Every structure is written in C-alpha cells, then in structure tokens.
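note to self: the first set is below, dont mix up w the second
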Amino acid sequence: MTPFLREDWYLASLGRTLIWARLRVLEAGTAEVLDSDGNTLPYDSEDSARAALFDAEFVAFDGLDEDDALARGFSLAGVQPPQGDDDAALVPLMVQSLGARA
C-alpha cells in the first residue's frame, strides 16, 4: 500500500443510486482516486484530483449538510462511505442503491 496523508470520500447521485469515490493524498504530494469500477487513477496533485471529481459531478461527503443531501435525493441519516479491509473489499460497495422512496 502506498503511504498516504489523508483520505476523503466523494459521492455522486444518479436517481436513487449513490456512487462513491475515494481520494487519497499521498506523501509525495500526488493523489489517487479509487473509482466505483475499482480503478485507481493517479493525479499529479490533490487539486487536479479534486477538479476531476468535481468535473464528474462528485461532491465531498464531509462537506454535505442535510439540505444538500436532500436536494440530491437522500438523507445523511443512513449514508456513510464504504468500509472494507482493502480496496478489493470496497469496490462492490462503491455503488449504493437507496431503494424506492417511501
């Protein structure tokens, strides 16, 4: 595993589906994004990685408040980033169906 300084989670919503991406800022000053297909995409900087995520309509999970979440069609109450022992365990959890609206 590559040493990293920080890990941030991003999400995009498509209807009732959340798509997650993990951004890691590496000690070398570069960054990498784990996407929902299991690809680890390298970037020359944290800024370029964030720009690519924003261009793909991802938002920072830790920057969302309940109003932002509701505008995207979900509540923060039952949503959290995927958790797993390694990237292989995370990949199947990177696309999350929220089910039908009540």
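second set (the one i keep forgetting abt)
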Amino acid sequence: MNKKQNNFFKDVQKAFNTGVSFMLPAVVVGGIFLAISLATGEATDAGMEVTNPFMKNILDMGSAGFAMMIPLLSGYIANSLAGKPALVPGMILGYIANNPIGESQVKTGFLGAMILGVATGYFVRWIKTWKVPATIRTIMPILIVPVITTFVLGLLYIYVIAVPIGAGMDWLVDVLGKMQGSSAIILGMILGAMTAFDMGGPINKTATAFTIALMAEGVYEPNGAHRIACAVPPLAMAISTFIDRKKYTTADKDLGISAFFMGLIGITEGAIPFAVKDIKRVLPAIVIGSAIAGGLGMANGVEALVPHGGLIILPVVNGKLWYTLSMFIGVFVSVAILHFTKPNIDTVEEN
C-alpha cells in the first residue's frame, strides 16, 4: 500500500470515528427512551403498540433520537474530511440514505450514509480548490458548496446508486420466496445474516418485508428467525463490552449498556456505532451469529406472531424455549468471534 492510499484510509477511519462520537448521544437517548416506552406496550399484529399517552411521548422522543442518528453520522464524517461547509450537505444526504426515496423507494441505511458522508467530504474538498472571485468566495461555504454538493451527490444517489439497489432487493425477495420447505434452515440462516448485515438498511428491510408478507399468509416461522436475529447484534456487542473490557473504550462500554436494552426489545441499530468503528471485525461476527440464530429458529419451528423482535415479544412466540436458546447461542457465537478477532485497545494504540 503506497503512502497516498495509506493517508486515504487513515483519513476515512478518523472520519468514521468522528461520526460515531457525535452520533453516540443520539443512539443512547433514542435507545433508552424507546426501551422504556416499548417495555410498557402491548404486542399486536402491527408490532409493539404503546397506548399510554405519557409513554407515547417518550416513544416519540426516542424515535426522534434514532431519526437524527444516521444524519449525524454522515454529516460529521463529511465535516471531519472537509470542514464546516461539508456538515449540512453530509447530514441532508445521510437523511436521504436513511429514508425511502426514488421510484423504488430505496433506503440504504447506515452503509449508504457512510458512503455518502465520505463522498461529500471529498467532493467538498474538490470544490474548495476552485479558483473563484473574492466576492463569490465569501458565499461559497453557506450557499455554493452546500447547494452544489447536495444537488450533485443527491441526484447521483437517487438515479445511479439507488436504482440497482432497488432492483437487487426485488430479486432477493423473489429468491427468498422460492426457498421455503426443504430449504427452511438455509432460509433461516439467510434471513438471520440479512438482518444483521446492514442493521435497518435495505437488506434488513427486505427480510422484514418478506417475513411480514408470509405472516399475512399464516406462515410465521421465517418471522421467528428474523425476529430472533434482530436481537443478536446489539446483545452481542453489549455482552462483548461487558466481558472483554480491554477491547473497548470507555464510551464503547457506556454504549454497551444502551445496546443491551436495545437488544432486549429487538432494535438491531444498537450495534451500528460498533460496526462503523470496526466494520471488518464487528460485521462478520454479528452476521455469523445472527445467521446461526436464524437457522436454529427455523430448524426448531419457532414462530413469532408479531412483527417485532427481542425478548420483549416472548409472550406471543410459539416455541419460547428455542426462541430464547437460538438467540443466546447466536449471541455467544458473535461474542466468541469478537473475543478472538478484536485486539485490546492498548495493542491498537501501540501499533
């Protein structure tokens, strides 16, 4: 790897860490408020429903925290790479990535937001090299840079990047639909892996849409596999921070507490900050653990009767023992992989 490539990867890694540090409070606030409010809810065909007016307000505040999470990540990745002019375009594009857009209503989640954050940073860096008259230079940071950056990268995302992703998701639903019956265990493993791969992104949401469609036909086992897997990433990261404390910063350990409660109520996004900071180790660990958990759930005929996950829905699960066992076996596998692959913080700092 030459020096230029090495500097690029160092810049990007630093930007990711910056994005995570600014995103963390939103994750913690959103996760805790959602956990508190959903714990008082009732399991319905539409998921966990909060009926208490006060708790609904808490739920709304938690949802607001989660809505801010991905735009903050993308915005501060861009800000780290190119300074203040990149902040707002990065946030807007992060919001676009985390919400359905275009004819196919594609949502790319945190992975898309990370890519757009980096793209924004380098695009703004390039704009800063333009030679412009002094009168225009004064309005560059507040007018020219944000407008051009958002327009160019936003349209590129909607018309070039999002279209093939939407087509790919349609193909994936078609493939999954043909994998019932004898391929049940493989289907469960695929659903589990999809659930963890982008934690709320298009692949996760494809698994959700597929399982909900089958629920409408009275088939609940795939939803069981998917809902087991929803809890594995945040629970695995939480338990890893509890037992392998030398591998995590103080901020990570604090976040682990929040991730634990998010795991109990099936909010997969609780693992996103850990994945952003160390994607090459965290993502394989949680994908493998979730795949095993999903496969075990399907193999043992677990049925989740509502479109929600985590231990909070245990009263409306058929096959409660294997629902719980599958989840914790998946968590154990992920934690074990992290134990053997993540270095201690001291080791990282020495290198």
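remember for set 2: Residues 179-351 form one domain.
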